[in-house]
């Protein structure tokens, strides 16, 4: 869930206890004043008493006395005191000054610390080249922490040309001496095949060595190995254990991963509240993935009360860090007006940012914007371009969308065969709309041989998951005996499910069933109610039948004015039956009028 952990932003602190000791012992062998050496030794012991402010102040005093006597190793520690605010008020200018003095005297710790200052622009102007130079000097004197930092300069190509092989060499040197960060980064080299042949097993081995000694970064990576089954058999329980160890030490990546485990019930019982708790910890530390996932929890109301405003806030924080998923979801907020005022221009803007980074869902959404002309001028060829990119990445929405493009000739020549192929790819991933579309292709024999049984099967899959159009289509199969034995009652059951979700065709079908008494008890009042709902959605068949209800007084009092109004609405939209009724019932011919007089 990360590439290489760049520890160089932490000012120099030996992660291997022997690192500082070896550097110090080298200096003790010189012909220094024994009093100064004893003072320095005392300072080191006090310095390593973590969490003891009084000890830190005394250590600073010891180092100050030794530095006054121009004892080189003291400057490295004194610089670190100023850099970390340990035993003295934090002062990067002073840290830079002390490190410079020590580095000029050849002290390897000072050289490494000075590299940190140049790397991060602390007490001086940021300069990656100078950082590399001082890490090199320190490394060539055998200072182990500098091995890692020099390796990272080569790994990322900062201050020097990128060279994975040299990065691998320096990580290997540090790892062999037990440096946790070197072991972790060496694991990364094997994991990604940088500077060495990719080897998940060796990556696992080095992560394990570092993780077993307490490195939170290595524990996180080890959790990833177990989670994905890389270098070791997949084991969600062990992944959870290692993520927990890392997360407990504050690693934001593991906090997010731990949330995923609770969210999905992987290696631990599913617990949405716990998932949100860990997402929140990672998000509070600025982890973009945790922020995006936490936003999604608020958006959907998972483990927390649904809150579109908070969802928008977390998506915004993550999107600002360049997270493509968050950028896409932020686009959703603007598109739907959830948590923020609806704004298609901003939706298009965020979808564009995310799509440019390759997010397949954003690519599909961007295609929809071009197709409908939302936030951008309508352009079906652009729509096709982005939807195709999404589909090529296996996104089921993109695949279904591309199927629609081929089915209806949107930005491309109509091609039912291609449409069927893309609908099927999407349907096999469980996309409910695509499952209905595949059913339609089998039902009508478009792009594939007509097969009512297969149409019925695909409608069933989609309908079972609540897709209303498929529910109506499944009702039609039962009602007319297509692909299944004729069963009016089951047909009406599926019409009702679909009609209650507002599908006008299903409302019309249910109205017809009540009118005819097929599958349900005959009931003109209910027929009128369902025809009314469907007609209100401009269904021309329902408008025609509603006209009949008013004309003949079925389910409602006779009302010729209303009858004529609904016939006209239906006829205007092209319904010939309604047009004929208008002509016959309201505009009789001369012969009819004469017969009526006689």
- Largest sheet features: none
Rounded to an integer in angstroms, the radius of gyration calculated over CA atoms is 36 Å
Number of helices: 33
The CATH architecture designation of one domain is Alpha Horseshoe
User: Which structural class fits the helix and strand makeup?
Assistant: mainly alpha
* Average pLDDT reading: 93
User: How many extended strands?
Assistant: 0
What is the CATH superfamily of one domain?
Answer: Tetratricopeptide repeat domain
CATH topology of one domain: Serine Threonine Protein Phosphatase 5, Tetratricopeptide repeat
Into which percentage range does the β-strand content fall? under 5%
Low-confidence stretches: 1-31
* Distance linking N and C termini: 91 Å
CATH C-level label of one domain? Mainly Alpha
**Cα shape:** elongated
Residue share in helix: over 70%
């Amino acid at each position: 869930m990360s590439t290489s952990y760049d520890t160089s932003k932490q000012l120099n602190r030996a992660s291997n206890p022997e690192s500082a000791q070896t550097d110090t012992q080298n200096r003790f062998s010189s012909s220094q004043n024994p009093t100064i050496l004893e003072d320095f030794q005392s300072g080191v012991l006090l310095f390593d008493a973590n969490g003891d402010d009084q000890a830190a102040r005394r250590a600073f005093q010891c180092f100050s006395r030794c530095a006054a006597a121009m004892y080189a190793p003291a400057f490295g520690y004194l610089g670190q005191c100023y850099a970390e605010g340990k035993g003295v008020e934090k002062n990067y200018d002073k840290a830079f000054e002390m490190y410079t003095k020590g580095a000029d005297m050849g002290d390897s710790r000072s050289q490494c610390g000075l590299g940190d200052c140049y790397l991060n622009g602390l007490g001086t102007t940021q300069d990656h080249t100078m950082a590399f130079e001082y890490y090199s000097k320190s490394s060539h004197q055998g200072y182990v922490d500098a091995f890692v930092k020099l390796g990272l300069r080569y790994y990322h190509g900062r201050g020097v040309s990128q060279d994975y092989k040299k990065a691998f060499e320096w990580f290997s040197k540090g790892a062999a001496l037990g440096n946790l960060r070197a072991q972790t980064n060496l694991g990364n080299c094997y994991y990604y095949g940088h500077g060495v042949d990719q080897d998940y097993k060796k990556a696992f081995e080095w992560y394990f060595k570092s993780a077993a000694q307490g490195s939170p970064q290595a524990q996180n990576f080890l959790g990833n190995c177990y989670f994905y089954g890389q270098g070791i058999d997949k084991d969600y329980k062990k992944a959870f254990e290692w993520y927990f160890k890392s997360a407990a030490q504050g690693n934001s990546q593991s906090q997010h991963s731990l949330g995923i485990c609770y969210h999905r019930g992987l290696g631990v019982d599913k617990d949405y509240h716990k998932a949100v708790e860990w997402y929140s910890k990672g998000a509070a530390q600025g982890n973009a993935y945790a922020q995006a996932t936490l936003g999604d929890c608020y958006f959907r109301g998972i483990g927390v009360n649904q809150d579109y405003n908070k969802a928008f806030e977390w998506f915004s924080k993550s999107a600002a860090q360049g997270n493509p998923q968050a950028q896409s979801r932020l686009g959703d907020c603007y598109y739907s007006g959830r948590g923020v005022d609806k704004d298609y221009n901003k939706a298009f803007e965020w979808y564009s940012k995310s799509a440019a980074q390759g997010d397949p869902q954003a690519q599909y959404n961007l295609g929809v914007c071009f197709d409908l002309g939302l936030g951008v001028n309508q352009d079906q060829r652009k729509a096709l371009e982005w939807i195709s990119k999404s589909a090529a990445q296996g996104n089921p929405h993109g695949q279904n969308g591309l199927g629609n493009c081929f089915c209806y000739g949107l930005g491309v020549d109509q091609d039912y065969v291609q449409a069927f192929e893309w609908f099927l790819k999407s349907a096999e991933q469980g996309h409910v709309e695509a499952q209905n579309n595949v059913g339609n292709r089998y039902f009508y024999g478009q792009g594939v041989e007509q097969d009512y049984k297969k149409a019925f099967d695909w409608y069933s899959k989609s309908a079972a998951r609540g897709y209303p159009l498929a529910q109506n289509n499944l009702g039609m199969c039962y009602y007319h005996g297509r692909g299944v034995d004729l069963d009016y009652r089951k047909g009406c059951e599926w019409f009702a499910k679909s009609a209650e979700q507002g599908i006008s065709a299903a409302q019309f079908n249910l109205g017809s069933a009540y009118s005819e008494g097929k599958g349900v008890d005959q009931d003109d009042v209910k027929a009128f109610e369902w025809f009314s709902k469907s007609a209100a959605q401009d269904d021309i068949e329902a408008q025609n039948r509603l006209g009949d209800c008013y004309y003949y007084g079925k389910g409602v009092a006779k009302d010729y004015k209303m009858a004529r109004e609904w016939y006209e609405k239906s006829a205007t939209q092209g319904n010939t039956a309604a047009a004929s009724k208008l002509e016959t019932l309201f505009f009789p011919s001369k012969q009819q009028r004469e017969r009526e007089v006689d």
